[in-house]
Write a structure and sequence with these properties.
GO terms for molecular function: zinc ion binding. This protein is 49% helix and 8% strand. It is mainly alpha-helical. It has one domain. Residues 37-39, 41, 61-63, 70, 72 line the site of zinc ion (ZN).
Amino acid sequence: MAESTSSRSSWAAERAAMGPPMPYREGALSYEPTVFCRCRLKSLRRISWSDGNPGRRFFRCRRCRTPSDYGFFSWIDDEYPQFLKDLLLDLRNAVWSLKDIEWMQQAVSKEIEALKENNHQLEVEDLCKAEELKAI
Ligand SMILES: [Zn+2]
């Protein structure tokens, strides 16, 4: 089943908001030598998981997405060949799909537990009503 470009982008944006598909091996500030932003803070080293630059590392101001963001952004790695981009996107999407399945399994397990509890309550109520009927 083919997905349209817009729904794939939307899907990727939703997943990107959930965080990186792979855990970082090092903290965003655990690198040397230090790269300073224009605001004189040590820059964050991150990994892009966007459709255009999957797996590509970059430096970014710590204040990104805040009003005091100075807009500092710098790629560390050169752009990857399209083959590697496609491969990384396929792997990224596979990880996100597995995480979706895991999330759905957890949600289903919680629902099952809630239904079991509800079922137990109904059984108790039925027993009480049966006792009431016997007493009549
Ligand atoms: Zn900065």
